[in-house]
Design a protein that fits this description.
Blueprint: E1 4-7, E2 10-13, E3 19-22, E4 29-33, H1 40-54, H2 59-75, H3 77-84, H4 91-115, E5 122-129, E6 137-144, E7 149-152, H5 160-172, E8 176-179, H6 185-198, E9 206-208, E10 225-230, H7 232-239, H8 242-246, E11 250-255, E12 259-263, H9 272-286, E13 296-302, H10 306-317, H11 338-352, E14 356-359, E15 381-384, H12 393-396, E16 403-409, H13 412-420, E17 425-431, H14 435-445, E18 449-455, E19 474-477, E20 484-487, H15 490-494, E21 497-504, H16 506-513, E22 523-524, E23 541-544, E24 548-549, H17 552-562, H18 567-570, H19 587-598, E25 606-617, E26 626-639, E27 648-658, E28 664-675
Length: 678
């Protein structure tokens, strides 16, 4: 089978000599790959044209596309599982790659619809006053870059690696070019074929290069983004290409790193945390045969427990059956290819110059199915370095396979220094029952890491694990780990957008952002805004209510209803020396009374109160004060209907409460569900 690339809207066969891609289990030919004959500059030109279409959808429309695509791919997951076996992945390995990747689409589709506006752009942060009278203000918006996001991925996660980068790119409004590592590109190609066949994304939103990327990076501009996952050596070469430097192209690198897992100073053998620690290290060594950028390479333990850890790890690993992942009982498959066996072996030997073998042997190991001669099997190995502060290899060399090195420490200060010798990592984890120990390790090593997980018996049951990047949290790290950042929820979407400061009159910025900005023009109508359907409401629509005088009786009655007996409401003898002048009304009474002033009591398009945001009580209200409310439409957003539900939208209202002197006493944003005409 010759793999195809998908470029400028068509499937293309590579020409010339093809690279053979072999089954990691038995060495059989799976596919052949070549990208010769592709017009790489043409792919970028085509992608930039497509960008104009994609960026004209709103963020919510893009998110709904991703959600639909996630359901589509999930319905076809079994075909991906079947082909994934050729990569050497077990069912659990494939689940992380396939369903984990699809799950990332679901997460981003959901977060974008919950946390971002239904506009083509994103309004970021709050209004910034820039003048005394408030006629000149500033804000920030984020708009899609007008280029293409080129995603260069590693061989270990051919599905997840593509989807976790594609999701934020598409929601941001940027089309993508996927360049999978050739070794496992046959699985990526299969998934992309299903994506194209779905017709869910606008034509050209995704292109695929199977084989070499050629000279594509010679043609990137300031509107393009390049992301890279893989070895630091390759990443550095790409990062300094002339076009990337000359055009200040955004380049995000996520490189393999020497991640640590630490056992707490007093978490002795026999404790729950010790057992959890051993299980986690074993799992990270054998999942994907240790071929994870987040795998545990350095196992940092108290010196007094080093022998116990080595023995416990050896006992755990001895029970892991290795072989053909399609056979029952197999818990660990091979590396992705024979080249990886050679690479891992060479790097392990470099580490052994400063270490010794504590468990394992690659000279003699048992297999359930598969081929030792043609497959890419590598047995788990535990190494031990007894002088980790003075030996360099365990902190400089990564063997990208089922290998970890035990590094003993005498005290917390040594443990922290050993961690830092890794020169920057994607993830570290600490297993301890001592929260103070965990606190000190986190504070003193966080500057070297993108993520740190602290686990004890209370959190272990629901922990997602050391090696699992979550779409809601940042994935990346400083130094050796590449200095980049992926995932992290909305943060990663903004990597593909330009953040721009906008300045002008509040009315102008309201028109641009579709959000009411303080000081902007307001519009009063004879109709109460609560009598208007969603479509009839405009940003800036306002009502000034009638007034109400707050009485002592109001305060006493609200005390009885709420049981809020705070002294300032109930005990005037205690007010002297406080911040209050006399008996003060409850803040929550003021906001409740405000609702009584602005709500239209008759049935109408307003279906329900949906929530309250950003409530502030800015000045005390005393018995005898008179309040009134100014209610303004702040923003609008259509709500996706459920089965049998009326069409509706969420309207945010700015609530400003004033006293008789015109001073603001309370400020809030309320949300209502308002019926849509449809």
């Amino acid at each position: 089978m010759k793999l195809q690339s998908y470029a400028y809207g068509e499937w293309i066969n590579g020409t010339g000599e093809h690279q053979n891609l072999l089954n990691a289990v038995n060495g059989d030919l799976v596919a052949e790959v070549s990208s010769k004959g592709i017009d790489f500059e043409g792919m970028l030109t085509y992608g930039r044209k497509v960008n104009k279409t994609l960026r004209n959808y709103t963020i919510h429309e893009r998110a709904r596309m991703l959600k639909a695509l996630a359901f589509y791919l999930m319905d076809r997951k079994e075909i991906f599982y079947e082909l994934s076996k050729a990569t050497g992945a077990t069912k659990i390995d494939s689940w992380i790659d396939i369903e984990g990747g699809i799950g990332t689409l679901f997460t981003y589709a959901s977060k974008a619809r919950r946390e971002m506006q239904d506009e083509r752009f994103y309004v970021d942060g709050n209004l910034e006053p820039l003048s005394k009278k408030g006629t000149f203000v500033g804000h920030h918006i984020c708009v899609p870059l007008e280029g293409v996001a080129i995603h260069i991925n590693a061989f270990n996660f051919p599905c997840w690696g593509m989807l976790e980068k594609m999701a934020p790119s598409i929601i941001a409004g940027m089309p993508v070019i996927i360049k999978p590592a050739s070794l496992t590109s046959y699985l990526t190609e299969l998934m992309v074929k299903e994506i194209i066949a779905s017709n869910i994304l606008p034509e050209g939103s995704i292109q695929l290069v199977c084989g070499s990327l050629g000279n594509m990076l010679d043609y990137v501009t300031c509107q393009d983004v390049v992301t890279f996952t893989g070895s630091a050596y390759t990443g550095k070469k790409l990062k300094v290409l002339p076009a990337i430097i000359d055009n200040s192209v955004r380049f995000n690198m996520e490189a393999d790193s020497l991640n640590f897992c630490m056992l707490g100073e007093n978490d002795a053998p026999g404790t729950a945390e010790f057992d959890l620690f051993i299980r986690e290290v074993q799992r990270e060594m054998t999942t994907k045969a240790g071929q994870k950028c987040t795998a545990i390479r350095r196992t940092i333990v108290p010196e007094k427990y080093a022998e116990d850890v080595a023995k416990a790890l050896g006992d755990k690993l001895s029970k892991i059956a290795m072989g053909d992942p399609s056979l029952e009982g197999v818990k660990m498959g091979p590396l992705a290819g024979r080249e990886q066996v050679k690479d891992v072996s060479e790097n392990m030997n470099l580490i052994l110059q400063d270490s010794e073998v504590a468990y394992g042997s690659n000279a003699d190991f048992a297999l359930i199915g598969g081929s030792k001669e043609k497959g890419a099997f590598f047995a788990p190995m535990v190494l031990l370095c007894n002088d980790p502060l003075n030996k360099k290899a365990p902190h400089d060399v990564e063997a990208f396979g089922p290998i970890t090195t035990i590094l003993p420490y005498k005290n917390m200060e040594e443990a922290i220094e050993i961690v830092k010798l890794g020169k920057g990592s994607l993830v570290g984890s600490v297993f301890t029952a001592d929260n103070n120990f965990g606190r000190e390790i986190v504070y003193n090593t966080a500057s070297y890491h993108g993520r740190i997980m602290v686990v004890n018996k209370d959190s272990a049951g629901e922990s997602t694990g050391h090696g699992s990047p979550m779409p809601q949290l940042v994935h990346g790290g400083p130094g050796r780990a590449g200095g980049g950042e992926e995932l992290g929820g909305i943060r990663s979407i903004l990597h593909y957008m330009q953040r721009t400061a906008i300045q002008g009159h509040p009315t102008t910025l309201t028109a641009i952002t579709k959000q009411y900005q303080t000081g902007a023009e307001r519009f009063e109508d004879v109709r109460h805004p609560f009598t208007k359907y969603y479509e009839e409401l405009n940003i800036g629509d306002t009502i000034n209510t009638h007034k109400r005088t707050v009485t002592e009786t109001d305060i006493v009655n609200f005390t009885g209803i709420s049981w809020d007996n705070f002294y300032a409401h109930t005990d005037i003898t205690s007010i002297e020396g406080s911040i209050f002048e006399r008996r003060v009304a409850h803040g929550y009474f003021i906001i409740s009374a405000s609702a009584g002033l602005f709500v239209n009591p008759k049935p109408g398009p307003v279906l329900a109160n949906y929530g309250l945001d950003e409530l502030r009580f800015t000045k005390p209200v005393y018995a005898g004060d008179t309040i009134n409310v100014k209610l303004t439409v702040k923003s609008k957003q259509e709500k996706e209907p459920r089965d049998g539900e009326k069409l509706q939208g969420v309207v945010k209202w700015l609530v400003e409460v004033f006293n008789q002197d015109g001073d603001m006493v309370a400020l809030a944003t309320i949300l209502t569900l308002v019926e849509r005409k449809g």
